[in-house]
Design brief:
The chain has 13 helices and 13 strands. With 347 residues, it is an alpha/beta fold. It has two domains: 241 residues, 3-Layer(aba) Sandwich (D-Maltodextrin-Binding Protein, domain 2), CATH 3.40.190; 93 residues, Periplasmic binding protein-like II (D-Maltodextrin-Binding Protein, domain 2, 3-Layer(aba) Sandwich), CATH 3.40.190.10. The protein is globular and about 60 Å long.
């Protein structure tokens, strides 16, 4: 496990219980639209829901699963959801088409888009893509083009093969590399071949795009009741992800046996995914500042990467850190490194 995170949060907004312990009838209802089908990828949310962290912070959250036919940003724009999860580029694309969404937190500090290849024919840098056949799922073409341009790769020497996220073309040798989700398909590759695949993360080569972000309508932040509800949601969400980082076993159990109980997921597979996902959640920034944080430097890098994708109108205004500042109003998080137990005080 990468690290153990402990955060002391100041209570913002209403509580779900009165002083006598009775239920508060004014709990705000929030709908969270996730970006994909139920997986341990959303384990922190499942913990927050199951352990009552949302309710403790004044909100009743309905977690709606996503999928290939679900557009989380459209759900927020239409009012079907209050908060949508996705990538910073999906938010930017929605805004370019007329939405006015703002990102209030970022779950994955590193973008999970990665290139998976065989250890016998590894691709470890973008330059290694030259002379190779690369499987590109629909929607990832622009990201590949931006990565190639940024890293001086000769695009004429890269053969693009339309693909899905299924690893079969890679294991069969039809392609030399396949664009995948960092914590998911590499696990399937290990299970299928008995060997660790070679994983090249785009975030290591200048593709800085926050993932698993939380997006809301901009005007919801100027409505006091809605803002307090979003703040309460993020407080509970962060508590859930803290528990996940400290020990993901609970998230795995909830995923396999509850939130995705009819999906045929295995504890072994989801445990391995949960372990790899730590690399996306826990970074020097979140060790210092707390989970889901967004820094000025990180936002600037996102703007640069999103602009390189050719998305119109991208600016730092698409990110709003004010709710996180409210959540961490008591001074922020202290993070104990699991290796030596030392703590970093961010103040």
């Amino acid at each position: 496990m990468a690290a153990a995170v402990s955060t002391s949060l100041a209570l913002v907004g209403c509580s779900v219980s009165d002083d006598d312990g009775s239920s508060d009838p004014d709990v705000e209802k929030i709908t969270l639209q996730t970006s994909w089908v139920p997986l341990v990828q959303f384990g922190g949310s499942y913990i927050a829901d199951n352990k009552g962290y949302y309710e403790d912070n004044g909100v009743d959250v309905d977690i709606r699963p996503g999928g290939p036919d679900v557009d989380a940003m459209s759900a927020v724009v239409s009012g079907q959801a209050d908060i949508g999860m996705g990538n910073a580029d999906t938010v930017a694309h929605a805004n370019a088409e007329g939405a006015d969404l703002v990102i209030v937190a970022a779950g994955f500090q590193k973008n999970p888009l990665s290139l998976l290849s065989s250890p016998d024919n590894p691709i470890t840098t973008p330059k290694d893509m030259e002379g190779k056949r690369i499987g590109v799922p629909s929607g990832d073409e622009t990201a590949q083009e931006a990565l190639i341009a940024r890293n001086g790769v000769d695009a004429s020497k890269v053969t693009t093969v339309p693909a899905s996220f299924d690893i079969a073309p890679l294991t069969s040798g039809e392609v030399d590399g396949l664009w995948v989700f960092y914590a998911e398909q590499p696990v399937s590759y290990l299970e299928a071949t008995g060997h660790e695949g070679t994983v090249m993360m785009t975030s290591d080569f200048g593709f800085d795009v926050y993932s698993q972000v939380y997006a809301v309508k901009r005007d919801s932040l100027t409505d006091q009741a809605k803002r307090e509800a979003i703040t309460g949601f993020l407080k509970g969400e962060i508590q859930g992800w803290q528990d996940y980082v400290n020990d993901p076993a609970e998230a795995v159990d909830l995923t396999v046996n509850d939130y995705a109980k009819d999906s045929g997921l295995s504890v072994e597979n989801q445990t391995e995914q949960a372990k790899r996902q730590m690399d996306l959640l826990v970074t020097p920034d979140t060790r210092k500042l707390g989970l889901l944080q967004m820094t000025d430097e990180g936002i600037a890098k996102n703007v640069t990467s999103l602009t390189a994708l050719g998305i119109d109108g991208v600016s730092s205004d698409m990110f709003d850190t004010s709710v996180l500042k409210d959540v961490y109003a008591d001074g922020g998080a202290t993070v104990a490194d699991s290796a030596d137990g030392t703590e970093t005080d961010p103040s």
